[in-house]
Amino acid sequence: MSDQAAPHQGFASRYRNVLLGLLAVAIFFAAWQAVFLFVPFNPLFISKPTLILQALVSLLVSGDLLHDLAISAVPFVYGFSSAAVVGVALGIVMGWRPRVGYTLDPIMIMFYASPLVALAPLVIVFFGVGVSGKTIIIFLLSIFPFIFNAQAGVHAVDRLLINVVRSLGGSERDLYLKVIVPSVLPYIVAGARIAVGRGLIGVLVGEFFAASEGIGYAIARFGDLFALDKMFACILCIMIIAVALTEGIRLAERVAFPWRVGQ
Amino acid sequence: MTETRAIETDIGGPLESAAPADGLWHRLESTIFGAGGIVVLLAVWEALPRIVTLSAGTKLFFTTPSQIAETLWQMFATGSIWVPLSVSASGFALGLGLAVVAGLPLGVLIGRSPTLNAMLDPFITAFNATPRLVFLPLIMLWFGLGLWAKVIVVFIGALFPILINTYEGVRNADKTLINVVRSFGANEWDVARLVVVPNAMPYIVAGLRLAIGRAVLGVVVAEFFGSESGLGVMMVQAAGQYHVDKVFAGLIVFAGLSLIMTAAVQVLENRLTLWRPQRAGGE
Amino acid sequence: MPGYIQGRNVNLTFRPPNRGPVRALSNFDIDINEGEFLSIVGPSGCGKSTFLNVLLGLVKPDSGDLQIQGKPIVGPGTDRAMVFQEFGLLPWRSVQDNVELGLELKGMARDARRKVSQPLIEMIGLAGFEGHFPHELSGGMKQRVGLARALATDPHVLLMDEPFAALDAQTRDLMQVELLRVWQEARKTVLFVTHQIDEAIYLSDRVMVMTKRPGRAKTIFPINLPRPRDYEMRTTPEFNELKLEIWNSLKDEITV
Ligand SMILES: Nc1ncnc2c1ncn2[C@@H]1O[C@H](COP(=O)(O)OP(=O)(O)O)[C@@H](O)[C@H]1O
Ligand SMILES: [Mg+2]
């Protein structure tokens, strides 16, 4: 089914979609900047790209931004990694042991369906505004994708493949390395991708509530100070981090599990 | 060695017992265990303060299921729930409604137009990956503490699942089926009516289900940080006054709201997808 | 003498975005007589479906001349109808609504549609299944619905793109018999694409072998077996001789 190669196909047609996307982004920022040529610019309520860029540079140069990010990263890393460990372990047990699954399924679904962020005020009041409070919120929010995906991954292990490996004389170790881990791992990584977003929500909730540093706190404070350029700069920064994390995991999925492309 | 043995057989377990032959026992078993799990959880929770002596500080933060149930009952009996609930529900309904009204056509549009899709893709990817919560301070600045800030927060939360699922559903429309109706002289409108929209329906319903969760989340956070009234406001105040039972009562009401909406969507889905061999789930 | 369907120098190149161009048809010539049953065999990807889609009016050729009864093809029309390989039934429509699709798009009223679809549904042996959804039918039943749908608009030309490829061998044999019966009754001009040489010989007046892509007519084999044909005919020496001839012509075009 190899079609005739097309060496003369132009750069533009090959990268059409990417170019269109870049074009749209450029138009968006240009229009944003240009609109204030026609309408009065009130810096208390809106900012424009040039000012945001300046603010971003100044926040980077002064080190404030990196400081806030570092502060926020600590509970994120704690909460997210503990959610990964506990969630995957729990999910695997729930998947392996049908009765454990039956028992815990409704409870987990109940927790998942209820907006657990609603417990944030309680957590903050109990654990304080420091690292521990934020860590717990992040943990609570990001654990469920790990649980559900690990469980689904175990369920998705193909019995036929287990028999195939066994019939070919594979050992227990082969069973793990060649069938079980490759089946479950993609689910877990996909779960991690979903969990990242929820973990970031946890960071923001924790820091909006009551904090004295951190990127969420910075956004809220710049809002209170009507420093819209700096606020937008921080928002932009979070967007970049979120996209980098999510798309980074997606890319890793494609590289590590090429057989799953298209699922 | 014994450990791994157990693992192998148990991996087969759920698959095997899912077979129709022992379907009834399977269902009974999972129901019994599931109900048992919840009962045990509640019982242990209820009994905990009677078994272990909690420190005074912890006691302040501790509540029991019976207390929560009592509080919940009181809130309904005295009617004190209705005002905050209706405030929250209207923010929820307006935001979700707007998200549907905007997300559906936009999803169909980018699903049918590769150019538009390529142009909007960076924005959709970026906004979808970013927790919409970052915009909360900005939205509060622009819209104040009233209903509309809440509606906007709910809207931006619920928009993307609907938009993206509609897009997926439209894009996945079967090329052959489009050719079939075209071969009978169908125009673009007929193609949309006869093939594209029915095909996208299950995706849209799945998107709606996700959107409900996001919308409830939106109401909660909007009320935590930027509202004067509503269930979320009530919860924050209760937490500040150590009325832990009231916080949990609020959580249950929110969960109930999302369950009722999800059930409504389920009914809608069953109506709309009679033609399908089985329900496909999930995202 | 011009054929009922006549194609001269038909050329078509696909230019999919983000990929190289694919030349599907090159200087394609064809002549088909009225009421004829013509089968087309050829290697995968040689342009058979493409040619049917061109005839159907779904795809426009880049150049060349293509006419039915002396009229150029400008788009889909009720004088032609296609039976699709994977059935192409709308899964959210019942059997009856699927059969009536073309009539509905013609703007025919419900009662009038009913009058057309009911005898057809009876003819294909699906009376009592009018309200069933496609997923409740077997493959053979689905393709009968596909056939009834194509016949509903009473087209002159029936285009069939590997219509039985998705069926098991027994069902396929039964469907062939049924198709011949319908064809003899309704006297349509049929273009039938298949991968099975047996099937092509058994059904057709002529069998056309296509070259590999870009597709052209390579050889046309007249099938002078008497009609009505029966199943035993497949074991006769004449049949096997034809089969060998066609296979020899086809196998040079197939690259693995
Ligand atoms: N819409 C399309 N866009 C690009 N290439 C196409 C398209 N349709 C068919 N092709 C290509 O044209 C060639 C002929 O296709 P087709 O007519 O479907 O072959 P077949 O003889 O198997 O039915 C194939 O290489 C196929 O990949
Ligand atoms: Mg084909």
In short:
The complex is a heterotrimer of chains A (263), B (283) and C (256). Chain A has eleven helices and no strands. Chain A is mostly helical.
Number of strands of chain C: 10
Oligomer: heterotrimer
* Percentage of residues assigned to helices of chain B: over 70%
**Name of the CATH first level of the largest domain in chain B:** Mainly Alpha
Number of H- or I-type helical stretches of chain C = 8
Q: Termini separation of chain C (Å)?
A: 39 Å
Bound molecules: adenosine-5'-diphosphate, magnesium ion
Biggest sheet of chain C: strands side by side, in what order? 6-7-8-3-9-10
Biggest pleated-sheet summary of chain C: 6 strands, mixed
The global form of chain C is globular
The name of the CATH architecture of the domain at 1-77 and 186-256 in chain C is 3-Layer(aba) Sandwich
The count of domains of chain B is 2
List keywords for this structure.
heterotrimer, A: 263 residues, mainly alpha, MetI-like fold, 2 domains, globular, disordered N terminus, C: 256 residues, alpha/beta, Rossmann fold, six-stranded mixed sheet, four-stranded antiparallel sheet, binds adenosine-5'-diphosphate, binds magnesium ion
Structure characterization notes:
The complex is a heterotrimer of chains A (263), B (283) and C (256). Helices cover 78% and strands 0% of the residues of chain A. With 263 residues, chain A is mostly helical. Chain A is globular. Chain A starts with 10 loop residues before the first helix and ends in a 7-residue tail after the last helix. Residues 1-7 of chain A have low confidence and may be disordered. Chain B is mostly helical and 283 residues long. Chain B has 2 domains: 1-62, no CATH class; 65-275, MetI-like (MetI-like fold), CATH 1.10.3720.10. Chain B is 82% helix and 0% strand. Chain B is globular, with a radius of gyration of 24 Å. Residues 1-21 and 279-283 of chain B have low confidence and may be disordered. Chain C is built from 8 helices and 10 strands. In chain C, helix 7 crosses helix 8 (237-251). Chain C is globular, with a radius of gyration of 18 Å. A 6-stranded mixed beta sheet of chain C has the order 6-7-8-3-9-10, sandwiched between helices. In chain C, strand 7 (157-161), helix 6 and strand 8 form a beta-alpha-beta unit. Chain C is an alpha/beta fold. Chains in contact: A-B, A-C, B-C. Chains A and B meet through helix 2, helix 5, helix 6, helix 9 and helix 10 of A and helix 1, helix 2, helix 6, helix 7 and helix 10 of B. The complex binds adenosine-5'-diphosphate and magnesium ion.
